[in-house]
Amino acid sequence: GKMTGEHVLDQGRPYHVYLTYYQSPAKFWVQVADNVGKLEELQEEIANYQTQSTKEPHIARGRVVWARYKEGGDGCFYRARVDSVQSGGQCKVYFIDYGNTDILSNADIRELPSRFCAMPGQAIECSLSAATSLTEDFNKLIESEGLHLVELATSPTAFQASPKRGGGGGDYSGDYNSSQGTSLYAPLQFNLANYMDVCICHVEKNGSFHCQLIDQAQNLKDLMYDIQNAYDNDSAYVTQPKPNLPCVVQDVDDGIFYRAKILSTSGTSVAVKYVDFGSEAVVPISCLRQILDEHIILPALSIECTLNGAERLNVGAVVNLLKQYESSIPVVLKVLVKTAGHYEVELTDTNGMDDYNLTDLLKSDNVSLPKQSQRFKTTSIKLLVRNPDVRINDEEKVFVSAVFNDRSFFGQLCKYDVSVLEQMTDDLAYLYNRDPGQNVDPSIGGICCTKFSEDSKFYRSRIIDMKGPMAKVFFIDYGNQEWKKFNELYELMVEHYSLPQQGIKCELKDTYSRQITEQLLDQLLMDKEIVVKLESRHGDTFTVTLPECADNDDVAPKINSFLQPRQPQQQQKGVAMVKLR
Questions:
Q1: Which class would CATH give 1-163?
Q2: In this structure, which CATH number among 2.10.60.10, 2.30.30.140, 2.60.120.260, 2.60.40.10 belongs to the domain 175-384?
């Protein structure tokens, strides 16, 4: 057979991927997660068809065939490409959907019908930039599943990856020394004349400001989620604070952990800068934690900038105008001058009927915000609902309150006092039925309070999708989802942020079976208490297994009997995100 197309990724678009085969940081393969279901359907069709096919093909270099995968006792046939024909009736093949290679007997090769060649090979070869210096550290990250996101750049033979969560096309440029834990966060690097959609997250008194890339909002939320789960009061403290030392800080106001670097020390207090938000704070030394390797290797997600021509303008006017945009209105940023760790930029408000250059606004008599600009929340996430207190490798007892599909469900953590959640629900009903307050400015990932249609009660929710005047909300303490009108979404009162999310999204670990349906999983799990083991996490979803124990006697044997590992992957370390530039 011959492939009818190539796997093409759009530049600038983020991709969720599975790591399918790993040799080294300089060479590993991934699959785009969105295509995995289609590939499994194709593989099932191939498995049904191959029993009817015994025709051996003409074996030639470059030919696409069926090849038997022998490693691990699989013995099934998969799509492969003949890379070389060798003596002794053997050939070297490359499994085009997984990245593996093998030397097989010609007897293990079958002709592939052309209808199975329509889907391009799904294995995408990647290499890590600076692989030589980071080999040992990258191996540890892969083994521990600490590296969740990578950013890719094209090269002649593969995609080149940087060890980070993405950055709108920026390159990783920092030094990394995991043994000493003293490396600085890498700054994002942008080329002159780059245009980016940003949100101003912090304005300094001198008129400089920090901004965040809007297309990295979800990455920032994922990072914050990771950090809340990775640190607590038992985490290692910073015992010898010194300027420029990277750390994690528990904010004294909201109790949330943030990545930071130390600016200065004075007695028992430390001045720190929150590197993903740009703001500064003075905190007790007891609020500092030693930062983990997987969090120091990611670049700082806020960018320090100065408005072009600001030195010739009134500083107070510059600050006042920028603060009108702070954490509320997105703007388009263009890089004009680039120096070490700093950018002189042009900002344009494109939210109204006309575009407004902010420097031009400052030069005019009217320096107030144009009336047609539409305010809405973007990347600033100072207020967060605390994440559940769970860790990878923990076993947690949960009450299954929602089933999403044939492998995913929501479990309320039984260790939490249900009476506290019930009391909060009663409080929300009392307060919001009297006066629901202001509607939220909807944005994906935003927290709100809204009614659940089945019981007309108010619950804490997160916006997970938007279409037209509608938003899809996820009820974070129960797992239900439904579409709501924008005018049905209300701001969550500050006092209701403090209670941790009461449950977790779960996905059965790296398994697939046509025998399990959503209806069957619902029958087996819904409204039952079970024990799950948290194996890994991608985004806000935990990959779980069901251990054999007394609490699982009714469900685990039935479900586990259906589940089969994906093949022929040698490694599948959770979900990553790949971003082309």
A1: mainly beta
A2: 2.30.30.140
